[in-house]
Write a structure and sequence with these properties.
By secondary structure, this protein is of the alpha+beta class. It has 10 helices and 7 strands. Keywords: Kinase, Membrane, Transferase, Transmembrane, Transmembrane helix.
Length: about 350
């Protein structure tokens, strides 16, 4: 849940001006604004390039100092109300503009600060322009944030809906297994019912955006205990967990549906059954997108493999895989990846998830 709270902070109204791409855009927009000011104030008695140079340096001063202010205060500002953010941001930029204007009078025009009518007009004009531009910018950020909040809310609703889906064939098979065990072994029937109750309770449990890998592995074990009662010796499980399961988090029901697919579309279709292999390891971070190239983090790699029948009479519709891909996309964007492939009559599914450690 700490990561979820951190994500909410990251979604605040003030952008992250500590990132190099945003600093570049800030410089670019400042230059465009300097060109606009040059066009508006240019006359034939002045050098256009000289005027552009003055405006560029002046606007860049204000922009970069303002960007540094937001870089340092962004996390705190994003916890404030929109009114507080607007007032503080406008006041800060107005103060930066006023100080920059005083510095410009001293350096560019080589004049003593006397606060003459001409100097006062210069200060008031620049500060007023900065305030108006800031208010327009804050309005844009507010509207942008409203749109993003709507998209995020819709995405989280989809996430919950996808997470809550339960495969009906598994539920029917489990109930049939319990019914058959009641007469033969009431203890096994009771244990199977407890495993089923745990799975259902976990699938309907609200509020957990992320769970530990250990929790997800426990869900897989509950599911496999149920299927072990149905398939017996046909189902063999091979675990290879090379990470600390408590140290990693992921969306709930990310791994279990893949294990269910391995059993339903693989093991139960084979006369002699087979081995479901479940692996977890940390791999070196690789850039899954251009945005991640500058600070690639270690990735949690999960793998589920199962043997395939020679001919499958009922091919899967890949609903579970599509479900997982959508949830990973909602949670991690392009930073997470699912890879499926065949290798020597085995079907292998790999998940690469940013190594968020709890």
């Amino acid at each position: 849940m700490e990561q979820a709270n951190h994500s909410n902070t990251e979604r605040g109204i003030i952008p992250d001006f500590c990132q190099l791409p945003r600093v570049f855009m800030l410089v670019l927009l400042s230059e465009l604004l300097a060109i606009l000011f040059t066009i508006l104030t240019f006359n034939l008695q002045q050098s256009a390039w000289y005027l552009l140079g003055l405006h560029s340096v002046f606007v860049l001063w204000i922009s970069l100092f303002s960007g540094a202010f937001f870089c340092l205060t962004r996390r705190w500002l994003n916890r404030c109300s929109i009114v507080t953010v607007t007032v503080l941001s406008t006041a800060a930029i107005a103060l930066i503009t006023l100080l920059s204007s005083l510095l410009a009078l001293s350096l560019f025009f080589n004049t003593t600060i006397t606060l003459s009518p001409e100097q006062m007009w210069f200060l008031i004009r620049n500060t007023t322009a900065a305030v108006l531009i800031t208010l327009v910018w804050m309005r844009y950020l507010y509207l942008r944030q409203q749109v993003l909040n709507g998209i995020i809310a819709e995405g989280e609703a989809r996430f919950r809906s996808l997470q809550a889906k339960i495969q009906p064939h598994f539920l029917f098979n489990t109930l049939n297994t319990i019914a058959s065990l009641i007469a033969i072994s009431p203890t096994k029937a009771e244990n199977t019912l407890e495993h089923l109750a745990t799975l259902l309770r976990s699938s309907l449990k609200p509020g957990d955006d992320l769970v530990s890998l250990q929790t997800e592995l426990d869900l897989c074990r509950h599911y496999l205990e149920i299927e072990q009662q149905r398939l017996g010796d046909k189902l063999i499980i091979e675990w290879q967990i090379d990470v600390d399961p408590e140290a990693y988090t992921l969306p709930p029901f990310t791994l279990q549906p893949l294990v269910e697919n391995a059993v339903y579309h693989g093991i139960q279709l084979l006369v002699d059954g087979g081995v479901v292999s479940i692996k977890a390891e940390q791999v070196a971070g690789k850039s899954l997108s251009s945005q991640a190239s500058s600070h690639a983090e270690p990735l949690l790699r999960l793998e589920v493999s199962n043997p395939l029948p020679a001919s499958r009479s009922k091919p899967g519709n890949q609903t579970a895989q599509s479900n997982i891909q959508q949830r990973l996309s909602i949670r991690y964007g392009s930073q997470a990846k699912m890879i499926t492939h065949h290798n020597n009559d085995h079907y292998i599914t790999e998940l690469l998830i940013p190594g968020a450690q709890s």
